[in-house]
Amino acid sequence: MTRLSLTFKPDYDDYRTVSQAATFNKPTVILIILMGLVSVGTLLAVGLGWVTVSSERLLLYLLPPAMFVFFLIYTPINLKRTAQKAAIDLEEIHWRVGKAGISVSKGETTTKYTWEGLGYIEELEGYFMFFSRTNRAEYIFIPKTAFTDPAEEDAFRELAVEHLGPIKS
């Protein structure tokens, strides 16, 4: 099978799950842990007097930990809001996967992605996610429930592996 046509109507949970997976990947989690350790260390150093800071420079020491805490709170809220906006439409999405790449149609809009423009594919429990080669924040997801039978999913896997290499999990 050289061309697949899939149709599915994603809901809020679909958008939330893939947004979280794209945002909280392994490198991001490692960065969050490192930033957390640096923030805690900075606050301890200033709070316990290990570092002497003049009052006019105190803000420079407190700003990075404050920004870290802000983004820890803001990111989940923003992901939820983004998923809600995307799910409001509740339009069917049509994916066409072929030798040239993937086209995604939602309503009147169709976007085409060539295999060369995609960096890799990642498999989640219920989704396949394709990430752009140049922008990790840009991705396409295909729910596994869009496949009508296991043979169709196997053909999809073969096509994806042929063009992008092994599927990451």
What does it look like?
This protein has 169 residues and is of the alpha+beta class. It has helices at residues 12-23, 26-47, 58-89, 150-164, and strands at 4-8, 93-97, 101-106, 109-114, 118-123, 127-132, 139-143. It has two domains: 4-12 and 89-164, Roll (PH-domain like), CATH 2.30.29.30; 15-88. The protein is 48% helix and 23% strand. Strand 2 (93-97) and strand 3 (101-106) form a beta hairpin. Helix 2 packs antiparallel against helix 3. The longest helix is centred in the middle third of the chain and has 32 residues, at 58-89. The model has no long low-confidence stretch (mean pLDDT 85).
Oligomeric form of this entry?
Answer: single chain
- What strand order characterises the main sheet? 1-2-3-4
**Total separate domains:** 2
CATH architect. name of the largest domain: Roll
CATH class descriptor name of the largest domain:
Mainly Beta
Briefly note the CATH topology name of the largest domain: PH-domain like
Tell me what portion of residues adopts beta-strand conformation: 15-25%
- Cα end-to-end separation: 24 Å
